[in-house]
Amino acid sequence: MGRVSQAQAQENRERIVDTASRLFREQGTHVSVADLMKAAGLTHGGFYKRFDSKEALIDETTTHAFDELAERWTVTLERHAGREEAARQALIDAYLSVEHRDNAADGCPVAGLAADMARGTGERESHRAYAEGVRGFADRLAADNDGDAEGITRLCTMLGALVLARATKDFPLSEEILATARAALAASD
Length: 189
What we know:
single chain, mainly alpha, 10 helices
């Protein structure tokens, strides 16, 4: 079998990062390298040609997931043509939706990676990226005159509601949690 081109190697690397980002948010960072590479449609042996370690991949995928979240915010702002409060409410509504609850792989890295970050040490690049991502998301949720506390409060409400809704998704309580949190956040504006 011949060597792959640099362009193909880069494409494969991006596929691994994207696949890992989704799997880690959905299943946690304990996903094996073999399972990850299988999901990416690549051989297990190629992993260490592209990454020094699984931890290095976790570092990169954490940044990748928060970059995706920031891109969603940008798209939402553009869709609402400069009406930042409407964009913020749309973001909250999408976050606290049944679709987001049921699609952790494409969902918020704050929720998807929280348990893994809590179990790790604060010395890793992924923890720095996670903390910066949480701060950035909270900042987006704060209205200009609300300050940091309001953005953090909104994020905590959203995150708590999402985690509880996922944990109770087979019961009517799940949708009640989402609706109650959306209403509470709409009332706080």
